[in-house]
Specification:
It comes from Pseudohongiella nitratireducens. The termini are far apart. The protein is elongated. α6 runs antiparallel to α7, α10 runs antiparallel to α11 and α11 crosses α12. The chain has twelve helices and five strands. β3 and β4 form a beta hairpin. The protein folds into two domains: about 130 residues, no CATH class; about 140 residues, Outer Surface Protein A, domain 3. By secondary structure, the chain is mainly α.
Length: about 280
C-alpha cells in the first residue's frame, strides 16, 4: 500500500466508520500502543475530528449557532454529517448541502426562519470564497461615446447575489451581534424571535463581498430586478425597457442611469462589453 493509499484509508476510518470496530487494515498499519487498542486510538482521532468539525460549523454559521445553542447545533450538524460526510478540501465546503438537508428533515423543514438564516449564511460563505475581480468604475462608464450607450452590457464580479426573504434577517442579525458582545453571552441564550414581515410585498437582500468583508442589505424589488438583469448581461436599452414596464411614472433613462451608478458604487460590475 502506497503512502497516498494509507492516507486515504486513514481518512476513511476517521470519517466514515465512527463507532465501528477497527478494520483489519487498521490493525496492520497502526503501530501498537501499550495502553490503547487500535479501536481506542481511532476513537480518539474520530472524537477530535468531530469536535473540530463542530467548531468549524459554529464559525462558518455563527448566527445559526447562537440561535440554536450548543445542544441543538450539535444535533443538527451530527445528523447532517452522517448524511453528508466531509470530503478532503477547503473547510468552507463543510455546509455545502446543509440547506438541502434541513429542507428535507424534521424539525428543520418546519422552521422557515431557520431555513432562511441558514440560506443566508451559506451564501455568505460561498461568495467569500469566489475570486476577487477588478471593479468597473464610473470613469470607465464615462469614457463610452454616447452612441454606444444603448448597446452597453456588463459582466458581474461574481461575489454578490440576491435572495428573496420573508423574515427581517437584517434586524435579527444586528440583535444577535449585539447580544454576542454582552458579558456572559451564551449560544442559545438570546431571547428574541426572528421577526417576520407582515405584508405580502417581496423583500430582497443584496448579499455581497466588499474589501474582503461580507455585507447584506435590503433593496427595493425594482432595483433587485434591475441588477438581476445586469447579471444576465442585458444591455442598457433593455434595462431602460425593464424600468419603463415597472416604473413608467419616472424619467426612465435618468433612473436607469441612477441604478447603474448605484451598481457601480456597490462594486457589483466587473467589465463592460458592447453588444452588436
Amino acid at each position: 500500500m502506497t503512502w497516498q493509499e494509507e492516507q486515504a484509508a486513514f481518512w476513511h476510518w476517521i470519517v466514515d466508520t465512527p463507532g465501528s470496530a477497527a478494520p483489519t487494515e487498521a490493525e496492520k498499519l497502526m503501530a501498537p500502543h501499550q495502553q490503547l487498542s487500535v479501536n481506542d486510538a481511532l476513537g480518539i482521532y474520530q472524537n477530535a475530528y468531530r469536535g473540530r468539525l463542530l467548531q468549524a460549523a459554529s464559525e462558518l454559521y455563527p448566527v445559526t449557532y447562537y440561535t440554536l445553542g450548543d445542544a441543538a447545533h450539535q444535533q443538527l450538524w451530527l445528523g447532517y454529517l452522517e448524511k453528508h460526510p466531509p470530503k478532503p478540501g477547503p473547510m468552507s465546503q463543510l455546509g455545502a448541502y446543509l440547506l438541502t438537508y434541513c429542507r428535507q428533515h424534521d424539525p428543520y423543514r418546519g422552521l422557515p426562519a431557520l431555513l432562511e438564516l441558514i440560506a443566508l449564511e451559506t451564501r455568505l460563505v460561498e461568495l467569500f470564497e469566489n475570486p476577487d475581480l477588478p471593479h468597473y468604475s464610473r470613469e470607465q462608464l464615462q469614457n463610452n461615446p454616447a452612441e454606444d450607450w444603448a448597446k452597453l452590457s456588463w459582466t458581474d464580479t461574481g461575489d454578490w447575489t440576491l435572495m428573496e426573504v420573508d423574515f427581517d434577517l437584517e434586524t435579527y442579525w444586528l440583535k444577535i451581534q449585539d447580544y454576542r458582545k454582552q458579558p456572559g453571552a451564551k449560544p442559545g441564550g438570546a431571547d428574541f424571535p426572528v421577526p417576520a414581515f407582515t405584508d405580502q410585498h417581496p423583500r430582497h437582500l443584496l448579499i455581497r463581498r466588499q474589501n474582503y468583508k461580507m455585507h447584506f442589505q435590503q433593496v427595493s424589488p425594482t432595483f433587485a430586478g434591475f441588477i438581476s438583469l445586469l447579471k444576465e448581461g442585458k444591455n442598457f436599452a433593455e434595462l431602460c425597457e425593464y424600468l419603463s414596464q415597472h416604473d413608467s411614472e419616472t424619467d426612465v433613462p435618468a433612473k436607469s442611469l441612477n441604478y447603474l451608478l448605484q451598481a457601480i458604487d456597490l462594486e457589483l460590475l466587473h467589465q463592460q462589453t458592447i453588444r452588436a
